[in-house]
Amino acid sequence: MATPDRAGRRRRLRHRRRRRGVAPGDRAGAPRRHRRALRPRRRRQRRGAAVQSPLPLRAADRRQLLGLGQRAGSRLPAALVRGARPANAGDSRAASGRLRHRSGTLPGGPRPQGRLPAALRGCAGPPHGPSRDRLTPEPRSRDRREADVEDPPDPEAATGPTAPAPDEHRQWHLLGARRLELRSLPLPAPPPGGAVVRIDAALTCGTDLKVFLAGGHARMLQPPCAFGHEMAGTIVTLASGPEAPAEGPHRWRVGQRVAIANSASCGRCSPCRSGRENLCTDLHYLNGAFGEYLVLSPRFVRRALHPVPEGLSSRDAALAEPLACVLHMMELVRGDLDLWRREGSPTRLDAAVFGAGPLGLLITHQLTAGGLRVTTADPHPQRLDLAEELGAHETVALRRHPGRDPELTVPERLLERRHHIAIDASGTLEGWLSALGAVRPGGTAVFFGGVSAGVLALRAHPIHYDEINLRGVYHHRPATFSRALEVLLEGTLPVDPLVGPPRRLSDLPDALDEMEQRRVLKVHLEPHS
After folding, report:
1. pLDDT per residue over 447-481, tens digit each?
2. Which of 27, 245, 264, 391 has a CA-to-CA distance to 425 between 20 and 30 Å?
3. Which whole number is the average pLDDT over 148-170?
4. Per-domain residue ranges for the chain?
5. Cα dist from 344 to 189, 279, 347, 466, 517, whole Å
6. Angle at Cα 302 formed by Cα 280 and Cα 295, nearest 5°?
7. What's the half-sphere exposure (Cβ side, CA atoms, 13 Å) at 501?
8. CATH homologous superfamily of domain 324-476?
């Protein structure tokens, strides 16, 4: 039996592979249509003729050269096939390095030394590892960079020069029930990704008054702590870091005017992913509006800052926080109101609002703008006049009778149960019961005002048999905050009746005293006046 000529078989196999254009280390069994694509037509080359070719390439580098990391046998990029012609129009496959043998020589002799042509250098991908013949793209020219990406705007040219943050600032701190202190504190540098905002306008709120009288809030703040949560200002410092402000929906810049929400959600929990950030399981609250400057953490820079539209004053922008709460309520009850309209109810729906404080007046205005016939009830005649100015169709003066059923303090015409929706904006148990008693069967009672403490005793019969909807409302969401700024910019909401003239930062105790006596609704503080 003859011994197989294995050495001769290997020589014939190498010769066959060289003729087909398959280099050692590549897939010898690639489909013929792929091998043809890799083998451009060439002239016959006289044996021993010199060829201008690049340096020997490793297999990994060669695969990158053939298709940015693709394996051999795939189709070449068009730029590589058309642009990589050797200088002497010789063997283009040899010039690309695909005929290199293990010894590093070409079939016609040793490979001459030289650099890759510019066409090959420009289309090569990143190498898999360090090599002396590393392939790097040529740097783009300045003109091409300018054509692809515009340079960011100059903050100084867009907003004008902004004074840097000082070393110290003043800020009001809540120490307990009816205890405030204006402190001069060092202004710390913001953390990486944080910012420092100069407070241009701050507004008082009914929640501020309740917190001042009670000495704290179970969820939002515990003394001693900074005070105030409705504000707008200007960015004076941005700190770079791994959580830079550029990661958020806006690319912030020094000198930009912003409205600051008083909470920041995590963005990862189930409520956040479903668009209900106000119910975030890790909601962070922000206080410190009654001060000259405020240092923001990266989370608040990413999730609590909102750009103030051009043409909107800082005072009006600070009103976005309470208006955002009202708009959040409007979105929650829209489905209930649309159900009445679909079932053939008259186009004009009836609504009752209990409480004509700042939030009650904002609710009155938004319900009227939505096409509802609104009745506003409050014990104070001056506030009822403002309700009519903001669009209320009817006002009712409440009469309190100590020691009697809270529902009896409401006139009978409000208890006729003719309202499709009744909203409490007073934040009292009496207001909650009044809203429940004023709604018609199938209607919605909205508990908008927060009650600090107490137990609500409800009559189960009308809730069950009349299908009364009970709706709790809390806080705001980033979407409603942005929408509030748009509503304020439209100018349909009269702000002057709600907010008084500007006052100094040191006037905060007097402002809270006037609010307690129901002489003012909201006080506008200018910390830098």
Report:
1. 998 887 778 888 888 899 999 999 999 999 999 99
2. 264
3. 56
4. 54-140, 163-319+495-526, 324-476
5. 60, 34, 8, 18, 45
6. 100
7. 1
8. NAD(P)-binding Rossmann-like Domain (3.40.50.720)
